[in-house]
Amino acid sequence: MAFPVIVNPVSSTQRALAPEISTWPSGEPQLIGSCCGTCGATTFPTQQRCPKCSGGDMSDVLLPRRGTLVAWTTQGFPPGPPYKGPSGKDFVPFGVGLVQLDDVIRVEGRLTENDPAKLQFGQQVELTMIPFTSDEDGTEVVTFAFQPVSN
User: What is the dihedral of CA 138, 143, 146, 150, to 10 degrees?
Assistant: First the structure.
C-alpha cells in the first residue's frame, strides 16, 4: 500500500508535524540539517553542538532531496509514545527506511511504500510530504517521507 503524496501543498487545512525540520510548504521540500564549520560533520535534525567534535560552529544546511535506500523494514504496529498518529483499527503499517543522501548523511524516515516486494536495497528515493494524521479541528498534519523514484 502506498501513501498519497501531496503534490500541491499549502492549504489552510494542512500543517507540518515538525515545521522546523523542512522547507515545506515549498513545492520541492528539503530537510534542514546542520553542518559543523570546524570538522564538516552534518547532522539531522539541526543541532547547536557538533556530535563529532563538540564544536559550536554549526550552521543550517539544506539536505539533498534524493538518496539511496540503504536499509528498510515495515512498521507493523503503532509506535509507542510520543507517537500521535493513527492507532487501533485506523493504524496502517508503514515502511521505514535508512536513506543515504548523496555522500552527505544518512536519514531515517517513513517510506511511501510498505510492500516489501516493491522495495530494494540500493533503490533511488526522493523526499516528499505525506498525510500523517488530523488535528481535532480537521487540519491535516503532514510529515516527510521518501518515495521510490520511477525510472
Answer: 30
Q: Give the angle 25-30-32 at the CA atoms, nearest 5°.
A: 105
Q: Are 8 and 136 in contact (CB under 8 A)?
A: no
By percentage, how much of the chain surpasses pLDDT 90? 77
pTM of the model: 0.87
Q: Which residue is listed with cell 552527505? A: 104
Strand partners, 111: 95, 146
In sequence order, the 6+-apart residues with CB closer than 8 A to the CB of 121 are 69, 70, 71, 72
Q: Has residue 7 got a pLDDT over 50?
A: no
Please check whether residue 135 is in contact with residue 30, taking contact to mean a CB–CB distance below 8 angstroms: no
pLDDT digits (tens, 9 = 90+) for 26-74: 999 999 999 999 999 999 999 999 999 999 999 999 999 999 999 999 9
- Kind and range of the H or E run holding 148: strand 140-148
Distance CA 89, CA 40 (A): 45
Name the DSSP class of 19. G
